[in-house]
Amino acid sequence: MAITSLYLPPTLRRPIPFAPRDHLRREKAIELYEAGEHRAAIDEAIGYLLLPGQPAPDLTNTPLCLVQGTARVRLHIEDERLVVRAVLGALSMEGSATAALRHFLSRLSGTGQLFQPRLRGEVVSLEFEERLTLLHPHKLIEVVQRLAEAACNADSWLAEDFGMQALDREAVQALDEADVRMALEIWRTHWAAVEAMVDEVRRYRSSALLNRVADFAYSQVIYALPLNGGLPERLNDANTIYSDRDEQPARRLAILSKSVKEARALPDGDLVASLGHVGYAINPISEGNAGLLAKVLSGSQREQAIADYHAAGRSFESALYQAVDFLYLLAWFVWPPSVEEALREALDQASGRPLREAADLMRARAAAIVRAHGQGEDSADAIDGGSAFEGAWQ
Amino acid sequence: MTAQVFDAIDQLGVFQVYTGNGTGTGFLIDERHLLTNSHVVAPYREVAVEMRDRSRVLGTVRRVHPRRDLAIVELERPMTERVLELADEDVQRAKQPVHILGFPVGLPLSLTEGVVSHPRQLLDDQVFIQTDAAINPGNSGGPMLDDAQRVVAVTCSKLDAAESVGFGIPVADVRAFIAGFRTQTEAFGLHCPACEELIAQPTRHCPNCGTRLDEHDDCGDFFRSPDLQPVSEFVEAALRAADINPVLARHGELSWSFYRGSALVRIFCCCADHVNFSCRLAQPGRSGLRELFAHLLSHEHAPFFFDLNGSIIRFNHVVHMADVFTPSEHPALIARVGEFIARADAADDILIERFGCQPAPDTMIDRLDSPDHGA
């Protein structure tokens, strides 16, 4: 079946607010720590991390519970020590306890991080404990952020894979009926489209096309659907192989094909069970910035690639190439509303259009977005530079 | 010839030299002295020399020639390995086979082979033997042998921008350097890079020709203690507190390793934020794995922890860099490191005896079980 257009549905994920951190708070936390006001420093450092709308930390008087996805990260002070703990679950006698323990030891324990999984009775938690005098804000921020991220990633798939009993987890909020219908539609249409693209990769025998299809397959589904549990974990496992540029193309294609087949065969009930909204105390994804926009949506290499596709009449590859760039920015970064809207609008306009038209449209939209919100190519390297971004958008 | 050299490779007096900057090779010129490159030891006056059984002895740098890139290290005890003979004269012709011994990229003693590409290549106003034999980081200071197993040069460098272009310091220069050392009465001597006068006392300028020493090839650095980074200061203070000589533990830049009992403890920085203490202990057995894994994950090990790295059980401790820069807390942190080292030493016995684990390949259990251990 010839591919005549791209399907680029809107997201059903709840938006994460764009709230750049107030770095002065972190500086203030360091000043408090150096002045020996350790408790105040801890409150300030945690306050620095939190998204707007979270209660101000007051750990001297009240333990704190941060909800990160389905994880609850609990913090309290005990005997002049800060304890941070997130329960992952309880081992089950019937489940694969040995496999679960091996997973924790080989995948969650490790050098290069300050928190570790710990076993108390049958309950496994991610834990960190330290004297207040040894809690420099940089250290504390790193621990809380990374522990929350790890706990969030280790959600209900542990129960699915290892038969663990979920404990102290935040409930997932179900989607309404209309969104469930939409999610099912997105899932079916997306994977049918990817299957057709895989056929194109086979016809063209092109690694470059395989790269783009692989990126598209994973980014779009992660961007569009609020997935939880074992399903996104399995998608991610497959993606780490089929998107790996160092892996043999034949193996990548085989894994991608298998992943598509499994996705298409997934019963509706299983997908619905994986859908749900969660909240975040700490922004789980990176903040986008003007330099990143410019780097992804402009540049002579990109322009040349698109021009080459057009000259060769390869509209499908041109449209896919550009759609993947937009999806990358939307799936993995949080943006100010005006930028988010502009990025989304480009995909809305391109979705369902003839490929050549969609490619031209996205090219024009990318240029307009960079003009309005990005920076020139000269500053494209400043992805991590917060200052340019703050100057542009704050 | 190759077979002969291979047969004898472990008997030869060729050893790995470690400092806080990196690692290189050295070879015995007599039972107490090792010859290596000056750049291997610079700017340290004390280095670690690793034996075949991975134990280490302290080496004291006695003489250096930074310009000719040679150094002599005195070992704290005599060695029994074979002292290599120096060739009588420099290599005269191209295409003569050469055999290079050393520890490329930190691997165990290895032999590479090639031929002399040029017997007297002039570079930077100095003569070198050029060879096409493979030379890698870690080979520096090692012997370049002829077919009769005599040293014809000391491996010193290679061209990064070219394939198979390596260099050695000709044996005539090596002989002259050793001959000078044999008559040396001072504890330490450094050759002036300009006039080659031997300088024994700290000085800014050469007493003979007036050359400013600190402008030349680490010359000035040999007369002062190397500046340690804060991380190194912290780690080495912790090692001293645990009765471990930090010089013997140095394993290159921001890296240390040492044995405590049967446990090989490694200290390394994986990023700008963490100092990791890690000890490869054992491999799980075939049964009782749930109990073993539950033990490894037990909260009772905090603040330390076990992990599974491939099939190896490691015992670990992580110190955040922010703590390294909090000197007021160093006594507590150093005590914690001491506790970690003590527990690491005991942990493998527990894993093996209680949980049926096998020793990790690089533990010293075989050596400790040998009859002469403790003699």
UniProtKB/TrEMBL annotation, chain A:
Superkingdom classification of source: Bacteria
Protein name, per record: Uncharacterized protein
TrEMBL record, chain B:
GO MF terms held by the record: serine-type endopeptidase activity
Cited Gene3D superfamilies: 2.40.10.120, 3.30.1460.10
Superkingdom assignment: Bacteria
This protein's UniProt keywords: Hydrolase, Protease
InterPro entries: Chloro_Bact_Ser_Proteases, Peptidase_S1_PA, Peptidase_S1C
Biological processes per GO annotation: proteolysis
UniProt name for this protein: Trypsin-like peptidase
Source species: Pseudofulvimonas gallinarii
